[in-house]
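Entry 14. Structure prediction run on the chain below.
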Amino acid sequence: MFSPLPDTRTPGDFAREVAPRCQDDPRVPRVSVPNAGAIDSVAPAYSYVHSGPVGPDARLRGARIHVKPLPGFAKEALGRAIECHEARVTLGTEPPLADDPYILPDHWLDIDVDSDRDGFVVLVRIDEYQYAHEVLARARRFVADAAAAGPSPSPSP
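Output returned:
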């Protein structure tokens, strides 16, 4: 339901809401977040808003992270893994990755995963432009730093 009041929940509030869904089930293997070697490319993520007679206006919202095919993975499991990673890092129970594209300190990111041909696209978004720019920059550095370090042994998540 739409509310005219702003959402005043903190990143910690969001993380505590997600945390119960992140309890490991011994019957289900734990899925890891995609490492830089599993990422094909990073592109800007935009949303489009109606801005008058000239039509929609593109607004930077964050990053589109294109992940290589991961056999046996479903988009729902990958989305849950990334969401739980964000919650654990926010709550301090898991360390962030260097230039972690799935978190932004002191902010909660909107993360969606969809199928993209034979791989996945991870949308990492936030409403404020300055933070959206930082999300995109972190994702690009995450991949560039791994490329500079040399090939990874495998594109496993």
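The CA atoms of residues 14 and 108 lie 7 Å apart.
Filed with the rest of this week's runs.
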